[in-house]
Design a protein that fits this description.
This is Isocitrase. With about 525 residues, this protein is α/β, with parallel strands linked by helices. Helix content is about 50%, strand content about 10%. It contains 19 helices and 14 strands. The chain has an eight-stranded parallel sheet. A three-stranded mixed sheet has the order 5-7-11, with no helix packed on it. It starts with a helix and ends in an 18-residue tail after the last helix.
Amino acid sequence: MTHYQDDIAAIQELKDANGSGWNAIDPESAARMRAQNRFRTGLDIARHTADIMRRDMAEYDADSSAYTQSLGVWHGFIGQQKLISIKKHLKSTNKRYLYLSGWMVAALRSEFGPLPDQSMHEKTVVPALIRELYSFLRQADARELDLLFTRLDAARAAGDETAAEFIQSQIDGFQTHIVPIIADIDAGFGNPEATYLLAKKMIEAGACAIQIENQVSDEKQCGHQDGKVTVPHEDFIAKLNAVRYAFLELGVDNGVIVARTDSLGAGLTQKLAVSREPGDLGDQYNSFLDVEEISEAELRDGDVVIQREGRLLRPKRLASNLYQFRPGTGEDRVVLDCITALQHGADLLWIETEKPHVEQIAGMVDRIREVMPDAKLVYNNSPSFNWTLNFRQQAYDQLVEQGRDVSAYDRDKLMSVDYDDTELARIADEKIRTFQRDGSARAGIFHHLITLPTYHTAALSTDSLAKGYFGDEGMLTYVRDVQRQEIRQGIATVKHQNMAGSDIGDNHKEYFAGEAALKAGGKHNTMNQFS
């Protein structure tokens, strides 16, 4: 028997045991409602999706072509439509996740209004969005199963046993829309206790993977902005431990921690690390500081100095009371950050870079893997990069290395539309097309994500609609570019009442009230125009 049939039988036993008061309860209807609500709590989701991620990580270790992907989403509906689209076009959600971007939470979900990515938004918005996303994904399950149940009833009513068996097999083998969410906790929103408390809320909402960065919490900047300030390793390790304890307390024993380093672009630190002996973590962190050697006679009131190998070293302190690292130390600090994070409980790494360049990433990962052979990355395929310009420049450099004539190109102006139909542009676009595959094979990238793509797609599509609708084309713009495309491409939202749950509600009304149910989906419902 299938799980669905087992549920029908179990509910029938309950009905029999409870006597005539349950006469109106139909066991199959109740079993259908159970099937449509497979995940009853966020912790059920977190445990299920953590298992998925751990399986995917093991598969990637065995085969680097088995990488995973996600798109950042800022609303439950956007996440739902993404998964519906994946199932429609690609037939499986396997190795496809969701990403919850702190940038988009700040820009789109804060009660303060649009904010920069500087941890100024309410921390409660993050778990709230996780709950919202999974509410919409659960509803996607319920809607798709409801359509299957409707088809099953129609096949039975028509006496078509073959069709009924086929539809039943689709119900039994149904693949849920519930997938892992990698959720951004920024720099932890405070001290380690604050990080632990927020991590708990995120996990309870369903997050199986939490990404945390090594910036100072109250000075946090977007990874692609200037002015980033990192913390000593001991501070970051405490927050890694806080997240792990949150997972363990809630019984998500295989929860995933993504340790992000911003050191490649961060030239500042708020404080010196504590060093207890030469060569320890604190000493290594401090060794990257920009210092000047001084004598005791040169000491001034208020100076902070480090003694190393008998020398007095005065770190250069800015007017902001921050200390700066020596230029050119970013990659070395990244490598130390990553090794240290993996040695202290992180599962995956995130190296924030200033450009998408496979060999740059690989150079750091190669060094990390000398110490931690199974090191794997989550990588930000960021909209902050000018992908066209970066890859045209890489293509230009490749042609130069090959001894090709590049006199027709100006390397500093390769973004120009004049180059769109050139051989160089085609080489660049092919590099972009294979970037994820190449990065996973060469640079240890297990998971590729775009942090805020749906921010940009919402703006682009809205611009197109507004331009035509408020211009001369009027309603034609909507009909031609939106509704007609929904119909032609089979986008389920063309039946927006159904997508919002109207048919599910009608079926529930029938379960509850039988023939007396007042349903919305009758012949006068205009949604029938899209049958």
